[in-house]
Amino acid sequence: MKILQLPDSVRYQSMSTEELRSSFLLESLFAQDTVELVYVDLDRTIIGSAVPSSAPLTLPCPHELRATSFLERRELGVLNIGGLGTVEVDGQSYSLDKLDALYIGRGAVTITFHSSDPSSPANFYLLSYPAHAAYLTTLIPFGNQQPTTIGAAETANRRHISKLIHLEGTRSCQLVMGLTQLDTGSIWNTLPPHTHMRRSEVYLYFDIPATDRVIHLMGPSQETRHLIVADKQVVISPGWSIHAGAGTRNYKFCWGMGGENQVYSDMDPAPIAELR
Questions:
Q1: Domain regions of the chain by residue span
Q2: Which CATH superfamily includes the segment(s) 2-274?
Q3: pLDDT confidence of 247, banded at 50, 70, 90?
Q4: Of the candidates 87, 62, 85, 84, which has an alpha carbon nearest to the alpha carbon of residue 74?
Q5: Closest CA to 47 of 32, 22, 28
Q6: How far, in Å, CA of 9 to CA of 56, rounded?
Q7: Residue 29 to residues 6, 89, 125, 140, 230, Cα–Cα distance (Å)
Q8: pLDDT digit string (tens) for 198-244?
Q9: How far apart are CA 228 and CA 15, in angstroms?
Q10: pTM for the whole thing?
Q11: Residue 194: partners with Cβ closer than 8 Å, 6 or more residues away
Q12: DSSP for the chain?
């Protein structure tokens, strides 16, 4: 498991493009027949992927966790962004089609990932935080969600937000996870920009054609930078940074948060006219 230590807002001011990318962007998840895990010191986040193709994959327990199983003291959100697959949790199987999610509570011991068709494997995105309480493992079919539509075509940011793991739905200890889909012709996400020091955020951008990109804006509102993001890449956003972006076409992204606060609306606005 790779260990990533995030820079603070002071060091951020003098970082080069490559330094920003190596610190805040995960570029190489979703390798076939591999479970990949990255431990981020910010809120002790673990970000990962599992792409079972030729054989099932079992979630390991890296020695850095000093635990008997991965979820001994953690909880896990799983989102499938690929073909039909199955997640087996302590002998119980859960079928996940594309955009279906699964919450796995603290204390689960054995988690195994399967693909129904090796030629079109499931792509399981993994997001985990420490947990001091155990909640029920729950399948979250995307088709059962009622998305909220915000934004407008006139401002190129009409989008549909589905809350998957949250206070009013599938409960967790501190993990919050959801999905945003932009309409054709809309490119802007998370407008107006904001920060929330009570929790950090992780963005997985996906369904981006190989020739397209998303420009992710980050940093304090008065000193912004950007990251050029490709398909299936992940941005780590600390509490002092805004997180907004624009693509060369519409796209999808999974947002996940962990920290001391699960209230979705807890945001500190950064008005667009005041950005620098």
A1: 2-274
A2: Jelly Rolls (2.60.120.10)
A3: very high
A4: 62
A5: 28
A6: 41
A7: 18, 22, 9, 23, 12
A8: 889 999 999 999 999 999 999 999 999 999 999 999 999 999 999 99
A9: 15
A10: 0.96
A11: 242, 267, 268, 269, 270
A12: -EEE----HHHHTT--HHHHHHHHEE-----TT-EEEEEETGGGEEEEEE--SSS-EE----GGG-SSSTTSSEEEEEEE-SS-EEEEETTEEEEE-TT-EEEE-TT---EEEEES-TTS---EEEEEEE-SS----EEE-GGG--PEEES-GGGT--EEEEEEESTTSB--SS-EEEEEEEPTT--EESSS-EE-TTEEEEEEEES--TT--EEEEES-TTS-EEEEE-TTEEEEE-TTS--EEEESS--EEEEEEEES---TT--EE--GGG--
162: its two tokens: 């589905």
